[in-house]
Amino acid sequence: VKDKELIRGSWESLGKNKVPHGVIMFSRLFELDPALLSLFHYSTNCDSKQDCLSSPEFLDHVTKVMLVIDAAVNHLDDLHSLEDFLLNLGRKHQAVGVSTQSFTVVGESLLYMLQCSLGQAYTAPLRQAWLNMYSIVVGVMSRGWAK
Ligand code: HEM
């Protein structure tokens, strides 16, 4: 099976429930690097990680991230069509103080979420397929970041 089929097949159900899966991903992210919480200017409105993750602003960002992943999955055949959007997205994250290394931690969190959600279907080739796609997305964002 090719990368694209593995990604599309696994996203089919996950993509229908973006918010809960995105919350699993971001809980993991803030566990791996709690300092990232403070980069969200609205994080001062909540006392705990759990509290933050259920706030509307955070859920909004979680949704935005999941929509970017959704766009990448839907454009696997022409990822370059997202280039301008992703360059700009990288630049915006540079502006809010997110480092490019943090994008790597998001990648680990994405894999963690896939593992939790897919169970037996989470295989080494599937993991690699997602890692390849995510690396392309983050590669373009990082180029935009450095511009
Ligand atoms: C916007 C933080 C990773 C997608 C933002 C904003 C912050 C932020 C503070 C501006 C406020 C907001 O819109 O909520 C972070 C942090 C990340 C991270 C700390 C972890 C390293 C990502 C990733 C993606 C993403 C990996 C997508 C693949 C977006 C989008 C926006 C956004 C689409 C809206 C940009 C716009 O306003 O045009 N992010 N982000 N973020 N983020 Fe992230």
Explain how this protein is built.
It is a single chain. The chain has 147 residues and is mainly alpha-helical. The chain has one domain: Globin-like, CATH 1.10.490. Helices cover 72% and strands 0% of the residues. The protein has helices spanning 3-14, 18-32, 49-53, 56-74, 83-95, 100-118, 124-146. Helix 2 (18-32) crosses helix 4 and helix 2 packs across helix 6 (100-118). It binds protoporphyrin IX containing FE (HEM). Residues 36, 39-40, 60-61, 64-65, 68, 89, 92-93, 96, 98, 102-103, 106 line the site of protoporphyrin IX containing FE.
Short description:
This protein is mainly alpha-helical.
Q: Helical region count?
A: 7
Let me know the largest β-sheet. Answer: none
Query: What is the number of strand segments?
Result: 0
Spell the H/E element sequence: HHHHHHH
User: Number of folding domains?
Assistant: 1
Give the CATH class.
Answer: Mainly Alpha
Parts with pLDDT < 50 across at least 5 consecutive residues: none
